[in-house]
Specification:
By secondary structure, this protein is of the alpha/beta class. It is built from 13 helices and twelve strands. Helix content is 34%, strand content 15%. The chain is globular and about 60 Å long.
Length: 372
């Protein structure tokens, strides 16, 4: 397709389609795109094509029609999907997932203008399935992933982002979480220790040492995480070296229950993983552990000053390159990177969050955007 598609005038746009199927963290970062569109184009109906369990997190988002689909794997899956979506007509389709299986969905969705990623981020030939791209002219630009998502609204001519989430979390989810929490009045610390890729996960021994130190200050500790056997084994390894009073909710929460848990927390500790962005969405400070990727790329969008970031050190010591000149999206794919993070740094960041007189969630607002 040509990249010279004419963008319809904003006042004429009535139907907007969005395709972002997964994952939980990325889906959280799409929500401000929705809020931006709703503010600028109140007349437009928004339809979001999404997969589970991502839908289970954002279900109930005001003003959005959801179409829950499974990621197609075979030709017959695409045929079935075409039959299901054939009725939809959009003025603009935001093609916010650049992966082969998603790219093959775009021809099935009818839209006058299909906006995709720029040539640097358009993976698996996405540019051949869209007719307009977001702008990103400097491969060394320090742009957060969520800012790249907001680039879709800028490509439409909307230049006033709305950094809001307002996820639909019910009293039922909060009540369930409350019933699981350890007793006491100490600060609630949620630790989501495992990332989707092992290279981004800190060591079990260091997590245990952090827990032992902050537990001495009366903190209540809760583990969160997914359902994989490897993840549970990793948490079990941490628990063997920590107090028996640590509460383990790994694999026991739905996406909304996890969001409710993060919302109740005073602080979240996690590596580069989806719950980081979920915590931001519900207004909870995150002590993020980063070395494989920088916080300016995939760290918490708000409150990045609480994170421990050794990405620059990892680029210098492991990749033997200058952090200022590596292209956007460069990762340090080496297990040694996370070992640059010390226990002392993490404990210090956690205590700073807890002891700050401005820790209240009302202070955790859009004024923090752009901190690094």
């Amino acid at each position: 397709m040509s990249s010279a598609s004419v963008m319809p005038p904003l006042e004429s746009i009535r139907r907007i389609g969005i395709l972002r199927l997964s994952a939980l963290g990325d889906v959280c970062m799409v929500v401000p795109v929705i809020r931006t569109l709703q503010k600028a184009l109140p007349q437009a109906k928004i339809t979001w094509f999404i997969s589970r369990p991502a839908y289970d997190l954002v279900e109930g988002l005001e003003g959005v029609e959801f179409v829950v689909i499974n990621k197609p794997r075979r030709i017959r899956d695409y045929l079935a999907l075409w039959w299901r979506v054939r009725k939809y007509r959009f003025d603009v389709l935001l093609c916010m997932q650049a992966a082969l299986r998603a790219n093959l969905i775009y021809p099935l969705l009818r839209a006058k203008c299909k906006i995709g990623f720029d040539k640097i981020r358009a993976r698996d030939g996405q540019q051949f399935f869209t007719n307009r791209q977001i702008e990103f002219n400097n491969p060394h630009q320090r742009e957060h992933i969520m800012d790249s998502f907001l680039g879709f609204t800028r490509a439409m001519g909307i230049n006033a982002p709305v950094i809001e989430w307002q996820l639909s979390i019910t009293d039922t989810e909060r009540a369930w979480v409350q019933s699981q929490l350890p007793s006491g009045n100490g600060h609630l610390i949620v630790i989501n220790p495992v990332a989707s890729k092992a290279e981004r996960t800190w060591s079990a021994e260091r997590y245990a040492e952090v827990i032992n130190r902050i537990y001495q200050r009366g903190c209540r500790i809760v583990f969160s995480g997914g359902t994989s056997e490897a993840e549970q084994k990793f948490i079990d390894e941490i628990k063997r070296n920590t107090t028996d009073d640590v509460t383990d909710l790994c694999g026991k929460t739905s996406p909304k229950q996890l969001a409710a848990l993060l919302q109740m927390a005073d602080c979240v500790i996690a590596p580069d993983t989806g719950p980081v962005h979920m915590a931001v969405a519900v207004g909870t400070p995150v002590v993020g552990l980063y070395a494989v990727a920088p916080t300016w790329l995939s760290g918490p969008y708000l409150g990045r000053e609480h994170c421990v970031d050794h990405y620059n050190d990892a680029v210098k010591q492991i990749l033997k390159k200058d952090p200022a000149t590596v292209p956007w999206g460069t990762r340090v794919h080496d297990s040694r990177a996370m070992s640059l993070i010390s226990v002392h740094e993490v404990v210090s960041r956690v205590l700073a969050v807890l002891e700050s007189e401005h820790r209240g969630k009302a202070e955790f607002t859009a004024r923090d955007v752009g901190d690094s």
